[in-house]
Each structure stands twice: as C-alpha cells, then as structure tokens.
TrEMBL record:
This is AB hydrolase-1 domain-containing protein. It comes from the Eukaryota. It comes from Mytilus galloprovincialis (Mediterranean mussel). Gene3D superfamilies: alpha/beta hydrolase. Coiled coil: none annotated. InterPro entries: AB_hydrolase_fold (IPR029058), DUF1057 (IPR010463).
Length: 346
C-alpha cells in the first residue's frame, strides 16, 4: 500500500470553495459539514451549550446501511486535522465500509457559529468526548465496529469508550501513538502547564506576557515545545492542559479490565512519551508482554509469540516514524483487529 497521495487523490480531498463538499460518491471519503450542538447543560452559565459547523469525512453520508456493514470512526491528533487519518482509512473505503473522520473544533476546519462558541470550548478531554457523542448522534451512528485514535485523539477514544452506558456501542478500539495515562518526562513540570492555562483563562491582562513566556518555556521547562511550529506553541500548551490525566488514568484502567478487542501502537518518535511510560501504559490497558511486538526500522510486522489479534501492542522503533510512512502496516494491523469484531457478530 502506498504511503503518499497521488495527484488525483489530492484533488479528491481538496476542500472546495464556499464551504461546499466534494461530490458525494459512495465508497469515497467525501468532505461534509454538519451543525452539531454540543455540551448542553455542560457549563452552568451556558446551559444551551455551543454549536459548531463541523467538518467530517464520510463514505456513506445520509445513506441507510445494511446491518452487516462495518462502521469505522477515526479521531485525529492535535495539532492536526481529519486529513491526517486518510492514509490508514482509504483501504477500508475500498472495501465498502462506512468510514467517518470528524474534525475536532479548531477554528479552521470546524468552527463555532459565533466567536464565543470557539472560546468557550477549550478542547479538554471531557468536552471532546461530549462533542464526539453529539456528533455521532447527529449523523445517526449508533454503533462503531472500530474506533481509532491518533496521538491525543486516543484520549477521547479511551474516555468515550470507558464511559459508554451501552458497552456494545463500540466493538473495538485502536489507540495509535497515545500520550499515556500520566505526564511523561517531556511534561515532568506538568503543574506549570496547568498554571499557565489557569492564568490564560483568568484575564486578558495576562495574555501578552504569557505569550512571551512561551519562548522562555520552550528553552527551559518544556523543550518539547521546540518540536512544534512557533505558531502552534500556544495552541499546544493549552491543549496539554486539557489532557485530564486523573480521568484518563481511571478510564484506561477500565478499558484494561474489559473484554473489548484493542490494538495499541506506540513509537519512539513521539516527543511527549518515553519507552518506560508506554510499557507501563500497555500493561494498564491489559495487554500482556507476550502480546507486544517490536518492529525495527524497515521491518515488517511479525506475529508475537501469542498471536492474539484481539489484544495486541506493536512498538515501532523507527525514530523517523510517521503515520503516513507506516500506513500500510497500520492498516493491516487494523484489519486484523476488525476481524475479531466481524467474527463475533456473524
């Protein structure tokens, strides 16, 4: 499977002018927009919640599905967008599955109906979980055969699945390059992140000096900020503050205690995590060491000693790892995971 887009592929997913979607055709990831009201009664002072003009990719927009059509939903990393997920999703589109990839509110692809919506929604994990719940309800998805997360999008996958009242609504999960259940070495000064977020939201008077302090932080407390573009550093810092590790820890334990099929991958190119943290997180998700497979640079995925595709972790050791570079191998792993769900349903 190729890891780059052809010219025609680029044209297919190029956003059209005037907020219009590309022409709808079943089996293709069509760019769509839908109004989603979310976080109703979430904040006491804003009981009506917020509304977003939500961008999403969908192979079967507004189409009634056969009961046996697998449904896949993918959640992107931040910074990032719905387009980042295309390399691992396209093969499933070719198989006729319903594939959906929404864009989290970001003021670019998914925008608030007014500026207060954009500023009220901070992007904390509990807000994102509520947003995804309301988005799926809006477009009529009641079950998900495989819920995929990339990077910090895994937080939403874990917390959304762990807190579902209907435990059968999500049949399998695939956290790809998760951030873990606690701050890694790159965020060892995490209390300072929370303090930054508190001051930022407290008053506009603090905003200018806080922006200036980011560059100092990038060279002292948080060198990881230097791995992001300068224009993204403020967004990233505020995003860090919304990880809600205390909830993520307990939700991850809940997933680890469940019988839901799950695939986890991690890589040494993720600046937010370290190997020790990922090994600990793998254990928290209930994946035994015998089900962990390590892949060196240029190697193909090999079956671990215990070839249990319903419970697997793959560690990519390539320090130049990207989702796009390894999209072919990731897709094969995801197909193996999905077979467990299909086998159980029929």
């Amino acid at each position: 499977m190729g890891s780059t887009f052809t010219e025609g592929f680029k044209k297919l997913f190029k956003k059209s002018k005037g907020n219009e979607s590309v022409s709808a055709k079943i089996g293709e990831l069509n760019l769509r927009y839908v109004f989603v009201r979310t976080c109703v009664d979430f904040w006491t002072d804003i009981p009506v919640g917020v509304m977003f003009d939500t961008a999403y990719l969908d192979t079967h927009p507004g189409i009634s599905l056969k009961p046996d059509t697998p449904v896949i939903v993918a959640l992107h990393d931040t910074p990032g967008s719905l387009y980042d997920m295309i390399p691992i999703l396209q093969p499933f589109c070719n198989l006729g599955y319903r594939v959906v990839a929404p864009n989290f509110p970001d003021k670019i692809h998914t925008r608030g109906m007014n500026r207060y919506d954009d500023t009220t929604f901070s992007g904390k994990t509990d807000e994102r979980v509520t947003f995804i719940h309301d988005f799926l309800q809006t477009i009529g998805i009641e079950r998900i055969d495989m819920l995929i997360g990339q990077g910090s999008g895994c937080n939403t996958v874990i917390s959304y699945t762990a807190n579902l009242l209907n435990k059968h609504a999500v049949r399998s999960i695939a956290p790809l390059s998760p951030i873990g259940h606690k701050p890694g070495k790159a965020l060892k000064e995490y209390p300072a992140v929370l303090e930054f977020d508190m001051l930022w939201n407290k008053s506009t008077l603090f905003k200018y000096p806080l922006r200036a302090s980011l560059e100092i932080s990038a060279f002292h407390k948080f060198p990881v900020l230097r791995t992001y573009r300068q224009s993204d550093r403020l967004k990233v810092m505020l995003h860090f503050a919304g990880f809600q590790y205390e909830w993520l820890n307990s939700d991850s334990f809940g997933i680890g205690s469940s019988s839901i099929p799950r695939l986890m991958t991690y890589n040494l190119n993720n600046n937010l995590v370290d190997k020790d943290l990922m090994e600990e997180y793998t254990d928290l998700l209930g994946i035994p060491e015998t089900n962990v497979c390590h892949i060196g640079t240029g190697e193909q995925v090999k079956s671990p000693e215990n070839n249990n595709t319903a419970l697997k972790c793959v560690a990519f050791e390539d320090k130049e790892y990207t989702l796009n570079k390894y999209s072919g191998q990731l897709t094969l792993l995801l197909q193996d995971l999905l077979k467990n769900v299909i086998k159980k349903r029929w």
